[in-house]
Amino acid sequence: MTNETTTPSSNTPEQWRSLADYDRTPLERAQLANQRTEGPTDLEIGPLERRKFLSILGATGAVAGTLSLEGCIRKPVEKILPYTTRPEDLIPGKPRFFRTAMNIGPAVLGLHVESQDGRPTKVEGNADHPMSLGGAHSWAQASVLDLYDQDRSRTPTFKGATATWAEAKAAIAAAFAPQRGKGAGLGLLIDARPSPTLHRLVGEFKKSYPEARVFRWDPTDGRNGRDGLALAGVRNGRAWYDLEKADVVVALDSDFMLTDGDSVRNARLFVNRRRAGAEQGAMNRLYAVETTFSVTGAFADNRLRVPSSHTGELLRGLAAKLLGTKAPPGVRAAIENRQSRGAGIVYTDKFRKWIDAVAADLQAAPGKSVIVVGERQPAWVHGLALLVNDALGALGKVAFVTPEPSAPGIGTVEELGKALAAGQLQSLVMLGGNPAYDAPADLDLANALKRLPLTIHTSRSVDETSSLATWHLPSSHFLEAWGDLQASDGTVSIQQPLIAPLFDTLSELEVLALTLGLPAEQATGHALVQATILGGAADQNAWRRAVHDGQAAFRKVKPAENTFDWGGLEKAMAAAPDPTVPSSGALDVAFIVDASSCDGRFANNAWLQELPDPMSKLTWDNAAYLSPSTADGLGLKDGALVTLTLGGRKLELPIWRLPGTADNVAVLPLGYGRRQGGHILEGAGFDTYTLRTTASLWSASGASLADTGRTYALASTQEHGTMIEPFTGKTRPIVREATVEAYRQTPEFVEKVEMLKEDHMFHLWDPPNPTDGHQWGMSIDLNSCTGCNACTIACQSENNIAVVGKERVLNGREMHWIRLDRYFTGDQNDPQAVVQPLPCQQCEMAPCENVCPVGATAHSPEGLNDMAYNRCIGTRYCANNCPYKVRRFNFFNYQKENLTTSPLWKMQKNPDVTVRFRGVVEKCTYCVQRINEAKIEAKRDGHSLVSDGKIKTACEQTCPTGAIVFGNVADPASAVSKQKAIPRDYALLRELNVRPRTTYLAKLRNPNPALV
Amino acid sequence: MATLKNTINPADFDDVDYARYPDQFDPVEGRHPLILGNPSFQSVTNDVCGPAEKPMPFGWWVLFGTALMLLGLFGISIGYLVYNGTGVWGLNNPVGWGWAIVNFVFWVGIGHAGTLISAILFLFRQKWRTSINRFAEAMTIFAVMCALSFPTIHVGRIWLLQWVFPVPNQMGAWPNFRSPLLWDVFAVSIYGSVSILFWYVGLIPDLATMRDRAKTKLKQIGYGIFALGWRGSNRHWQHYEVAYLILAAISTPLVLSVHSIVSFDFAVSQLPGWHTTIFPPYFVAGAIFSGFAMVVTLMVLARKAFQLEHMMTLKHFDNMSKIILLTGSMVGYAYAMEFFIAWYSGNPYESFAFINRAFGPYAWAYWTMITCNVVSPQVFWFKKARTHIPTLFVVSIFVNIGMWFERFVITVTSLHRDFLPSNWFYYSPTRWDVASFLGSFGLFFTMMCLFVRYLPMIAIAEVKTVLPEANPHHHADAEHAPAAPSTAVAH
Description:
By secondary structure, chain A is of the alpha/beta class. Chain B has one domain (39-158, 195-480).
């Protein structure tokens, strides 16, 4: 008896077992999904427990007894208390907006954040910030969910045990105070945030502890770009672009529209230029040379898929053509020498043709053409691109170089590895980052850190590094902390807290200040940032202005003077390894920053985990992308688990066939397979960092694949990636596209592919088609849409859309109201890709409306296809009858589940949008809450109509390229009416006569005729 | 006459070939008798009431026990569903309707045979229906019960289901009368209630017989209440027959309407594969097809178990097989016509939907359907097959399977690949889909078992009227009822 009660296995109290079970759930679910076999299975609910079984029996009885329970539901008692002293400007229920900024590595994005009664709820781009221009990427949109992450640490921990800040501060003081003026054995590791205050404090740190060492590591750091500029003699420089001025853009392994750097700005400006030339004049042209499909590659007019190591060779070829004798002699030798050496294997006919065509195109637009090199390329490619851009006259017009904030003497992660291996460090402070997870595997930082007597790590949750560190200090989210960030163009943004830290946390800056032993009043985030921005001056007005604007205009850093010294480039080019041609036995490996998880920093963000990858459409996992022919050659199907061996390191992961990937290259997205840091990341994907070494940070060759014979369930949201019907081979005119040339000749080309001519479409009765007052409509320009997914997350954030989890995505139950359909066209291995955002089309003759037996979905006089969630009983007939399949059903009580596992998420909910219950169909509403808010305002101000542009739907607002335009179609002067008047405008599935209010502008491409 | 026996050995009737008995004619009709063995009125009463009065055979207990267990499974699967949500089924985004709707249409279809046999065959004076109508009607009612349970549990918020009824309320919110689902609510519930009424009216004289034969007080009271004081007076019979005729007339259009309206659930939508004008007649034919197949399946079992071979004769099976062959061919024609129209309409979505049915991921379901529904009934061109019990049984099971698959093919294959390929997704059921389907058989067979346990499974009074010595005197037949109105038609 006594024995039994003490052994945990048998009679552990029920509560504990339930808690443990509830903690394990996501992992179990993933495992469940992977054990799935053929035949009927219960996909989503774990084994029946006794209690659950009993309650089901109870429910059975309840059903038998009474069908109507609605009268008996008890509403929670809530107390509402008024403010004794109301904060200035705060009207309960009215959102307020604040400006701040965030960074991904060195890339900064200015933000405009909505706060509901003191809770930050929705992130938008800061229209006045040059890096945002009003748009935001999905990471920014999702960052608000990180704030309310249930797994955030509440207290510091010491060797895994809960500790207090007083103890932590004492420990820091004890370690640092005696070292003042010396500092031997002290180390500081920072991440890549371009924060002037951080670097000012690092400078002071170096002054206080002259012998201490400072290192920087961040997988998203622009190291190659920085080193590339250094090859031209520019220290701590960072390149940035004004693509609105470029007619020809060559993207070399660069995903400048999504994962590489200043993507929001670059995409917006590039598309601005494209839009300007779409209807008349000349459109710009984008060449993409890349290893696997990125959204930039999908957008490109001409795309070349090559292994990563061939990209530099292409640039070398271009340089040979473009520079000729103008090149510095040493560089010229390096270019020509390699051209003869690299011939044969790399220089295929297609490759040569590309070099000729692209070089001619670049040369034809001097000062208006630019080469953009991605971070994945080695430094010498960046350096050579700078040289070519200089020769093209792009520097100072399209491409710029601005110094970034940098304290002197910051070492690399390799140097940190060496210092640790050599035992030169006694203690190490790690401000942010997660080196135990993401540092190059050969440095084996995880083990090295364990050997240090004192390691201090700040992070928002106990992650892989924190769990190894002696001290884990919980850090504030950027929406809770003061900070500053300098964008690549030199704009300095202020980060201001929108909310006091939810938990007892400090920002990284404040922790760094602790090591400096600053007096308490100078060590607050506010004081630290203000001191940097004002530089000692006490101009409070300037400060308040900067905080209000989100940027300190008076601190803007000017672009550098262009004086280059090409000696470094010469040497680097001479030392560059020869390109290799991968084969099925010796594959190339390319690492990419994941479009959802980034480098792993968003791994515990459920919105991003469930966000389909823009190209592979995978959720909740990463996989090794192979081209279809490579996979077929190896006899591998999607989801086949393989063992990938690279330089003696092995990783087991599934493969996914991604058309457009270079042959014999395995593309490995980073940021998955994390082991610690939260409950959402558990079981999500595979840790590709284990293969990544200092020698192969972005690509490597000589990898081999071995099939394990097992499979892994990968959850993709789109099974069919082509518009061609199986069996019949007919192409459905879903995404319509033409070349600019064809469009100029046949402006009505979208009409040519219509299945039914306009005069062949009849109605049984006059369609109800009011044309007065507000008639809402939307136009989506497929020629502007990059497929970056920002709209999906913006919508999720605005409209309280639930997260459903991996097995439900496997089961086809994702809830996104706006999805991005991606289709491949052309050759299976080397296709082009198009994307199409698909929200509810708000049909005028909506098929969903007449089939609902209870009239839960009805048409508003303003043309909205309204959904009355309260009235819906969940027959799903509307969803069946929707030709676009944009209606989503709450198969389970997702919202309750979400709030059970992550109660803090309720702080993020938009109070203007109903949180939907189980058994209800939901869908895009054109953000009806925003429409009504604007209408109320207009009425208050005595206007009968809302002025054009006043209402922006969430997707429209965040779209980095302004592809989505919403407005009143009854007003011929509105932006949406004007966009719909463009001849490229077409209605998807027009032949069904449902008269959708959302229409599309066909995509245009401007391919180089020489490459067709 | 001397050759006709009064003592019956039911086993004699399993291989009756009428040709072997050329001299055995009903002396009034001049045809082969419908009830074999020349039973007396008394022996008919004994034979039919007997099973309900004697202890049930072992097989009944086995069936009943199994059915009860399945019924329990039904309850658990419904409880599990309501507790957790519709997500316990395999439905997904493009496929919003799966097994539950398939089962609904399947059971409604089965529920067609009873009323057809009772009402339409009654109006057409098909006397052979008398031995099987009670049984078929009971089956109909139980099938409709099963059918109704599926749309009920299928909705996402079952606790608000009352909103589909036009109940005046303070919100002024009415159901949407344009929705085929609402038409369904009316069509199936009217059909269910009329079927129950029709069945019950037909039962009254027999309930009185049961009451009169009852040996225990409880039974006397029980049957007595439901017999409504029937004493068998001429006046009773007069009213009874008029009521029966009126109900038959009311039921007849319902037989056609209910499945037409069920088919509107599909036909009124715009989904390729659903949006088809052929659906109403095609669904009605399919329903009769499946209903008759189910009657055959059950009759084969019941006549054997309760030694009623002389009343449910091969003649009945012969007739029913012919109807199965006819409706099966109509269904086959509809399948072919759907393909033809898909091509002839020039609608590429429609063409693709049908090609995808036959060759896409669900081709296995499509060809199962074709094999079972179109190929297997073809054996009924041969009289040998129509009167061979094992063949009948096997083919009837095939037809049941085939008709379930027909609904599966229509519902799922149309949904899983529609207009935008980005939506395409495969659907597979979960164990809870399977459980609720099996569970519905539990409900059905539980009810069936209780029916044969407590009620006369053959309409005693009606069967007696087709015995030669009865020479039916229907009240509307002019020559035998001089008081009838002059509009009455002579036969």
